[in-house]
């Protein structure tokens, strides 16, 4: 059985450390730990193949910008015949405080346009996801400007801890199942 872990974000150095790239940050942390080598995937993203918990796992970071993330995820999933239930999408969530994680088996996009694109392209809401908190958004702050802003220095310790726990959560999903990971990390 093969698995697909997708991290959502925007390509380019100007977005590298922004809140909206939390999904990329999770996959980058996992790739470092697992010794992954990134390669280009059909001009839609970069991907790597690793073995985790004895399972073949594909990682993908779409380079299509957030709103078109589903194109890369669905392309790789279809090519390798990976069911949506064996995919897991990592992305930012403004409704969660910085450092908080939430794992779910399925659900709506919750206003996150990258996840909306993945749901549309895969044709189902039955896609596991790991949301990494980037909030709270200050009142009277434009949402687009907020998610495209960098994390402040004060949030870096909580962010680093959350990224480490997110990688542990991904490993638990792969080794012991999503229910165990939800009970442990939510």
Describe the model:
This protein has a 7-stranded mixed sheet. The chain is α/β, with parallel strands linked by helices. The chain has helices spanning 22-34, 69-79, 113-122, 143-147, 156-176, 178-185; strands spanning 2-7, 39-41, 45-52, 55-62, 87-97, 101-104, 129-135. The chain is built from 6 helices and 7 strands.
Indicate the overall shape: globular
User: What is the count of β-strands?
Assistant: 7
Residue share in β-strands: 25-35%
**Largest beta-sheet details:** 7 strands, mixed
Termini gap: 26 Å
Count the DSSP helices. 6
**Main sheet: strand order:** 2-3-4-1-5-7-6
Order of helices and strands: EHEEEHEEHEHHH
Overall average pLDDT: 96
Seen as an oligomer or otherwise, the chain set is: single chain
Percent range for helical residues?
25-40%
- Contiguous low-pLDDT stretches (5 residues minimum) are none
What's the gyration radius in Å? 15 Å
Structural class designation: alpha/beta
Could you write a compact summary of the structure shown?
The protein is of the alpha/beta class and 186 residues long. The chain has 6 helices and 7 strands, in the order βαβββαββαβααα.
Characteristics of this structure?
single chain, 186 residues, alpha/beta, 7 strands, 37% helix, 25% strand
């Amino acid at each position: 059985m093969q698995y697909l872990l997708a991290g959502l974000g925007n390509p380019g150095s100007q977005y590298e450390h922004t809140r909206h790239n939390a999904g990329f940050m999770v996959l980058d942390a996992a790739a470092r730990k697992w010794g992954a080598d990134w390669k280009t995937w059909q001009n839609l993203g970069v991907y790597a193949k690793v073995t985790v918990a004895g399972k073949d796992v594909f990682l993908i970071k779409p380079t299509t910008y957030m709103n078109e993330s589903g194109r890369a995820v669905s392309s790789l999933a279809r090519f390798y015949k990976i069911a949506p239930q064996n995919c897991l999408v990592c992305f930012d969530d403004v409704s969660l405080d910085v450092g908080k994680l939430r794992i779910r088996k399925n659900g709506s996009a919750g206003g996150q346009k990258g996840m909306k694109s993945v749901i549309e392209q895969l044709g189902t809401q039955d896609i596991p996801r790991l949301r990494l908190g980037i909030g709270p958004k200050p009142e009277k702050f434009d949402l687009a400007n907020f998610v495209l802003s960098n994390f402040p220095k004060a949030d870096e310790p909580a962010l680093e801890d959350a990224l480490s726990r997110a990688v542990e959560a991904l490993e638990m999903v792969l080794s012991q199942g999503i229910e165990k990971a939800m009970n442990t990390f939510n």
